[in-house]
Predict the structure.
Amino acid sequence: MNIEELYTIFCQHPVVTTDSRRTPQGSMFFALKGDRFDGNQYALGALEAGCAVAVVDDPAVAVDKRFVVVDDVLQTLQQLAHYHREQMPGKMIIQVTGTNGKTTTKELIAAVLSQVAPVQWTQGNLNNHIGVPLTLLTLEDDNGFGIIETGANHPGEIAFLANIVDPDMGLITNVGRAHLEGFGSFEGVKKTKGELYDYIRRENRIGIFLNASEPDLVEMAGDMPAVRYGLTGASGAEVWGEVVECNPFVKFRYRQEHTSWHTVQTHLIGAYNIHNLMAAVAVGMQFGVPFSLINEALSDYQPTNNRSEFRDTGRNRLVIDAYNANPTSMAAALDNFSRIKADQKMMILGDMRELGADSAQEHQRVVDMARESDAEVWLVGDNFAHTQNDCRLFADVEAVKEELKQHPLEGYTILIKGSNGTRLFQLPEFL
């Protein structure tokens, strides 16, 4: 069966699932394979539970006409998603990537554009070779906007995803020292993230949104068509902004040349979010969103998923940034936490993952920065355990939880920051 024929079936059953535990009535089940499972073995169960069609690549499980047999289910899912996107030339597709801030930036852009047009965007962090096709297959109608987040931890991944997404415009939030084990070096990070720019150039798309305050991005972009934004003083920026205060929520202001300032109070924690906010401002301006609606969208946005989230538990005030961590985001989080005024401050910092040969050096650098603060510091994980420090050390999050049960904290302002694998996101209920 070719993609055109499969697309006809998709149009009749436009809800896709890859999880046999979630089987919406009349949906299509794609039997993906993993290291420890084979979706083909769950296809019949998915049909019995409510799916109308099962796409499989094991002919032995195809017992009736409800099964569609293909050579490779994952590849077929990706091809179908690309074909679906190509049926929507009138929808403006913006692809977002970057080392840090891409999820928050995506959500802020969606909030702003939603003020004037229909918008579909990546939910959560479905930003890989499976999540991106699933997101594209949720796009509806040939109008409005699609904001597609793409992530990578190896060279070639952004290029691969861009070929599926076929974006009209691209935005790289920044390039930093993350996933060095997969990329090999910081130059490897730049090259991989820059694959989005390469696609926009090669396919002669509209252009990019460029943070003119990031020298690496300016260098990577060269003379390609760009809507430039940045911090006050950024060369060539069409709109620039600055943090007014950050205690704990960011208040910022922005302006264009020869215009007055627009000041916005947000619900975001972290001065580093000024770059994400300015990206959303630039996108909104490009597509004619009135300043009043841009301001309203950014003011109303509430962060979730342990990203730059502030929570007052009644006992302590928490700055929760426990979804991910790398040297760049860790440094930004520590710098921001130093700006917050509080009588008792604490940092609970978890290991950073996938740093390869640079891991020891980067963890020591974080410890050195943390020790310069006025906060008590707890370190969690084996990587931090091998640094030179005089901080409280914990093997894992379970050890931290046990300590908090035995000796509860009260009256603290606490930064919780670590890679998702350290599971520090479990700590707020103990604080």
